[in-house]
User: Fold these one by one.
Assistant:
Number 1:
Amino acid sequence: MMRTRARTFSRPMMITLGLAVASVVAAGCSSSSNSTQASGTSPAGQTVPTAHLPVLQKIGKGEGQLNLIAWAGYLNPLWVKPFQQQTGCQVNAKYANTSDEMVSLMKNGGGGQYDMVSSSGDADLRILYAGDARPVNINLIPSWKQFFPAFQSPPFNTIDGVHYGVSLQWGPNVLMYNKKDFPAAPPSWSVIYDPKYKGKVTVPDNPIQIADAALYLQKHKPSLGITDPYELTQPQFQAAVTLLASQRPLIEKYWALASQEIFDFKNGNAIVGAGWPYQVSTLRADKFPIGDAIPSEGATGWADTWMLAAKAPHINCAYMWMKYISTPKVQAEQAINYGETPDNKLACGYMNQMQAGSCALYHANAPLAYFHAIKLWKTPIATCDNGKPDCVPYAQWVSAWNTQVK
Amino acid sequence: MAVTEAAAPAKPATQDGVWSRVSAALWRRPWARATLLLTPPLAWFLLIYLAALVVLLITAFWQINPFTTNIERVWSLTNFQTIFSSPAYRQIILRTVVIAAAVTVTDAVVAFPFAYYMARVASPRTRTALFVAILLPLWASYLAKVYSWLLIFTHGGLLDWSLGKIGLSQVHLIYTNWAVYTVFCYLWLPFMIIPVYAALERIPSSQIEASQDLGARTWRTTRLVLLPLALPGIVAGSIFTFSLTLGDYITPLLVGGTSATFIGNIIYTNIGIANNVPFAAAMACIPIAIMAVYLLAARALGAFEAV
């Protein structure tokens, strides 16, 4: 039974609708957008928009608050509480799960919402060239002089001699395995591509995972000629994506949150996979038989920086945090609790005091060879290191991950 | 004894004049009264809600700089072309719509007998108790409910344990689309029961008696009298279940596996992670278009009519 109704608009409706249309049009026309950038994607030739901003000359009185974007496990009360007591700066944590999230948060909260971000190498350049970070006066951070030379002014947080943050710690993406199913550590990453473990493998839900596949192919398919897992030509990139697509039926779940991977290992949903030392430490603390290894192909990794936001509202507290987190004792605490390698040379002694043998376990005094075996995250860009524009930029990594792999 | 006195204190003449003039003017122009009343909520709705949506959706026609992810105001339809020409995205859209439809049908089938019992059979006390039972989960946080299902479905979790107790083998439901479907059915069931209850409650029992007097038995009465009268309520409830499933991304993220990417997940990863707001906006236009069609169909079926 169709009911028809005479659709007449009464006068008040007409007036308010008229106001409505006018306001919507006005809003649409005056929408603010970020500054437009030239479409050239090469950083060579681009400048950091905030390079000219003045740096703080002296750390003043704390503002009482500090808003930090951090990886899970980086703001453990063990070292945050003493900081809050010493400086009076209350730390407000915002946890992010991927580098992409950090770039996005800094962009959208860079308008004075967050003070610092513990970004990894693959996020740093994107944050810098978008103008979301500001220069740091490295002389206000005395512990910086105790850092390993490789981390004092690394290319991911220092451009043309200007520092935009202070290096924090670094670590590998390890192969995690359940000791009950693997009595001995698997010697190769091939175990996560093995159909024998169908339904029991887990890897991060992160487009940068393509680099792990490329690292694997660097050793197992030398004919492809991969030299840097973050600089892939189209055929190399396609080979890595194909490998990951073939891995998909083996994957139970691509973990998006560190807590998901911990849950899956604990409940037997996964027995082998790629993860961070944070998950390993947490599972170990719960007495779970978890093992971790860096197989023969090497591993990808990350080097983190506490980067200063361009419009940081609590700049004195931010500098106090940078000073605090760089000191050897705090570096040792974080290294042991998370399972990563500190950038401060003097942390080693403190680490062995807190936990015997931890300095060697977390490679805090490792030779340069270890450093070179870990391929640190960096943003894939179109220009390869040899200057040719053949390489696949990150935006394609994201779309390939979403459409071809997952 | 008459004690009441007209206790009207003498008002200053000017105050009396202004207010009474305004009052009289409004009295004579009913449209002005209505406009005055409607403008604040409508302004809020339009400026804060619609305008914000328009600003976001306009970016669907723009692009981003791939390196810095800043938005470039270059008008083009590239984002829409990417979505419709890629089989992966088409599959994601299809999967979202199919699961949303499945959840809607399941919830309608489950809710109908429940609502019928509540509306027409239960005593007032039972009805109150049932209402509490339905509405109480809505007070629990969304995440708490989804995580509980995670614990039920997980390898060696509550479901496996129960099946083991009655001698059946374990089922593997976690991180599958079945888990996503089940959790959605559970989450939106209250939103389906309430409108169906409201529709069933309004049906006069005289209609059912008349149908029975004319010789129709239970199933025929249900099919020819009850269902058509309750249909507006079912359609109203289905708007909730369909649209909520269409836009959700948290349940597929937590409970879904490798093939549980929904439209919402693509939007989430593009806004929050890849910072490709234009692409996310283009993707967001799709559920809006689907819901517009759905709402028009719902209106034609009488969901918005007050009986």
Number 2:
Amino acid sequence: MEGHQRNLSLYERFNARVVGVSRDDVTTLKYWAKSLDLTFPLLSNVTGFFGNYFYVKPEPGTENYPIFGRRTVIIDKKGIIRYVRDGSPDFKDILLFLKKLNQEGGKP
Amino acid sequence: MRRYLWMLLCCALVGMMLSACATMETTQKPYKLSQQGTVIWNDEFEFKPPSPGWKLVQVEAGGEFGFGFLRTDPGEFPSQSMFVYDEEPFGCSTKFDDREEEFFKRYLWATTFNISMEILEKNKVQVLGGEGLAVVAEGKDPIKKEKVKSKVVFGKRGDRVVAFYLTQWRHIDGTYDPSAFEIFDKFVASFKFLKKSFYETL
């Protein structure tokens, strides 16, 4: 998450915004954001809807109350999913992709 | 007025676990020696290496540090010294004083182990061709009977903060070895960037 926070100005340069999604409750996320000095939105999704929506495979043995692994998703302005990667975010890859996507869209 | 945003980067970080550091396994050495006796690292960094008693350590990008050197010191466990260069030190601020505060919140797994770091010294320094901040700190764990002395030097690469840090672990009754700090200072003073960073060229 700190990596995203460090890159906020670069995301802005490429007309992108970052949102974190977690199954943690709002109170936990507020504490988490404060402890890491995060300024971008964190969404609390305690039901796990987002995980299912983005087809994230639950950790084995957690099917009844799914625990999801990390997934990075980039959605363009038309709502089309353009990038999906599992695991820890590869920030350089993300930035290069956003740069390319921004160039495709042309200047505002 | 600028048109509103047209992309949304949605990071589904459901577990929100901190990333683990994977040890890098390379078949090709990422460094070479120059005729002047310095190390050229990935054609990106140049520095004077420490004496042969120090072993090279490195992790993949996105971990806690990029690469560094480790030395096992004489004395009771956990007697060792390690220093590293880190492109992504803990924290986000680009101002040194703020970054230092953020950094020490999480440095040495501060939230996991009960080591509270006490700042002993804090000085402005010249590093990497610009202004930087050097901080000396010490932490003690009376339960495990361990202590650690550390020097952290923050500098800039482009707009971003990078850091060098040395940690020297000792048994709670052990004595620190200042020679490691001198070697670390020489390493930092010799460190140069040979090209612009990824972020500077983006």
Number 3:
Amino acid sequence: MKNTKKQIYSKGSRCFNIFNYIILAIVAIIMFYPMYYIFIVSISSASHINKGDITLLPKGITFKAYEIVLNTERIWTSYKNTIIYTGLGTLINLLCTAMCAYPLSRPDFYGRKVFTIFVTVTMFINGGMIPLYLVIMNLGLINTIWAIVLPSAISTYNMIVMRTSFQAIPTSLTESAYLDGANDIHILTKIVLPLSKPIMATMTLFYAVQHWNSYFPAMLYLNDSRKYPLQIILRDIVVQGEMTDQGSDISSALNIVATNYKYAVIIVAVVPILLIYPLLQKYFTKGVMVGAVKG
Amino acid sequence: MKRNKNNAIPTRVKSSRLKMIKKSMYLYIIFVIPFIYFILFHYLPMYGVIVSFQDYNIVKGFSGSEWVGFKHFEKFLTDSYFWKLVRNTLLLNIYGLLWGFPIPIILALLLNELKNGVFKRVVQSVSYLPHFISSVVVCGMVTNFLASDGLINKILNYFGHDSVQFLMFPEYFRTIFTTTGIWQSAGWNSIIYLSALTAVDQEVVEAAMIDGAGRLKRIRHVMLPSIAPTVSVMLIMQIGKLMNLGYEKILLLYNGSTYETADVISTYVYRRGIINNDLSYATAVGLFQSIIGLILLISANKISKKVSETSMW
């Protein structure tokens, strides 16, 4: 392939390559610059931010904004909450999704067709926001962690991806375990799950990112501000520009502008995602591909 | 597969059914929790849409509330504001489709023309990243960049324009919403097309080369037709989703002065139902949206079956 390409490396082709590189470089800059800009402003000094001359590199580097962010109590509280919601939520997601995917992956599961329809219907039909809210209210889950982690316990789409992956495990393995007297619970925990580490890793990442980034369920179901996850606090500070916390007093005292503080909060919220991004990248394409295979 | 076929003797259907259920016993045990989950958080809410035919009262509950028939439906169908919501929902979606749909395809085609190397990997990594950034952060960036002292206005000022309060004018909302949507998803959505492109038969590409087809011609006549099935399936899926819009982002970006173009059915349901506690009315509006969405989805799938013999189910 490479050789043939070189043979017919015409003028037009070279022209195309140059344009292609330029266009894609611009795309990459558009995708990357906003985040980068947030970062360099968050560590620049107030006078430069007010002047607005920060473009490529931070100016008058200072970490005061971060000091304030890290001293803001509600950010710590919400960070802790988000970690708890993400941890517990993802654990529940993985357990429930696997428990749903495994029986449905087995051709000899009696009633498999009916149950598959029972589950996939929920991808296309739902009761809507208010009926779900009423159910959660009637279950007494309002203002508890369960309202955050239970309603989204299984993503049907992810479940289908996992089921497809379980189906790829050779049946000879499970067959022989049967002959040795193992039951399906043993087979799921001792054979299927250990063989499915890549897909479980993908699911862990998908679900965890989803929990980390979600704000709407918390907005709907939580009314105690001490239970708020990071994204709600982030919304108050960054989107609505609310500076009612001690942050504002300190910031005026230390000569930090609001922008600085807001951008530092954004960075603090995004850093965990950036840290696991290489991992995410390794697994997510796989997830997308498996999902593309019709369920 | 083999195990359940062994005993499938037609004359003894009943006993073999029992045997099969018995054999699946542990699978049922495993399935209990997911089953309860779907009943509680999916089927109960479906049943809960009956409140749209009631004047729901929290104290009286589902069974005690008064039945009012189609009162709420009549109310919103005759309300001109409701039709504004429908228009906004559809327009925001259609703009998203018109601009947001071709861009990932173009991106994938261009990326596919790059040699595998550092540059390709960097462009890919960087363009997938926004998909993992939360709506709150994205909207936070948007509101701050578009603020009167934000990045965009500083650029405008540099070129001698006055600052514009973009988020306060309804005429800018659709552009802002669509653009940020593309920024978030273009890279991610290109993955599926990129993978389809790797399956293109290299012999066909080489044959086209030998016939003197240039790069653009090869993209136009070889690459694009070979990913056409993927493209049509994705398009139909998008059309099927036309009524379900990322309202979480709208809730973060809109305000009273931009309701004219920004208020959509879901955001209205949220305000009426959760904020104003008008639960039955909001449920009725939401139900209307779900039904239209379902009709769209089913017809899109029918068309897909006819056109490309692919379907979602």
Number 4:
Amino acid sequence: MEGMSVSEEVRILAFLCNWCSYAGADLAGVSRLQYPANVLDVRVMCTGTISTYFVVKAFQEGMDGVLIAGCHIGDCHYLKGNYMTAKRFQVLRDALKFLGLEEGRLRLEWVSAAEGEKYAEVIRSFSDEVQALGPSPLRKKDKTA
Amino acid sequence: MSGLEQIIREKLANGSDAFLCLKNQAGVSVPVLITSPDSEDIEVAELGEVRYPLGKILIALQKEHPDTRLAVVVRGCDERAFIELSKLEQLDLDKLVMIGVACTPEEAEACGCAKPYPEDVTLGEKVENPRGLETIERLESMSDSERMQWWKEEFSRCIKCYGCRNICPMCFCKDCSLENPHLVEPGVIPPEFPSFHIIRALDMAGRCIDCGLCEESCPAEIPLRSLYRKMQEIMADKLDYRAGESRDEKSPLSFLGEEAEIKNLE
């Protein structure tokens, strides 16, 4: 991100599940792993609670990329919450794509509590991908700061 | 339509308590509930040149009178809607007698529906019709930014009349997300792109039965049907589900599900 001021950086919203991915992010932190700082995280009890509206709202409010990270399939604390996430995600991504939002702006990853390194890597690669796409076409002009 | 007149009399004589249909009143189709074989309305009962969704009236009638046997004339789309509504626990199909009407070839072609006939056809002839996907294919050949520009222009005509929602046979919620001030800012016309329209589209996933009433009723002539038809294609493609086709299989988005169902996720 050399030669770029903070305001030109893309902003990413990450929905992290309480039991796996939030703990994974925590592990990345205590392990002092480096990853881009343009990620804002929202802790949810389960990725299955994330309504598709939340993601639409995030883009509407000026986020350039949205990451949803939860427990691996089969490891959900609520047994099947992430099955719902997986189904919803596929529909949401294709619907947004049909309206012209690049697929790369939305990502679903499974990150366990032990995968601090994976979390850092996911953020690094997602941030690079969104950076390459640039600011979201849905960003409101008055909310760029 | 004398065939219809006869069917209504027959159904009322054979166990149906009431017949819900349209009647011609001074050249306009209005819904009417016929409860007696002597009713004068039977003579002016018609299929209606303009389609009118009777689903919401049926839901209200069944809530009031759960034990009544109602008979109703259905086209292919009406039947799909009623099947889907029964899976969403809004209608009781056991208490509903459906008299199937196949759309004429002209109607089917103009509409672009892939199944312009119900399972049991009493009136008319079944015609096969290709699914009208031209607009979707044209849009998909564009780049992402061109497509967004195209939709932005179309949606900029929206006057937020809620006509698409009000006419929709599958919309029955009392609390609508489109009226939630946190999702859709009140008093902004046209509504923000894309939240208003994407919220409705996402709610239609696994529900839309492709009747096309939304587009028909839109005063701004927004090609809404292409958006909802695309939602149908996404559901069929990713989750292997088409609304209104099966009487038992529920929409994958209405329950948590099994691992096998998420095989398509890359």
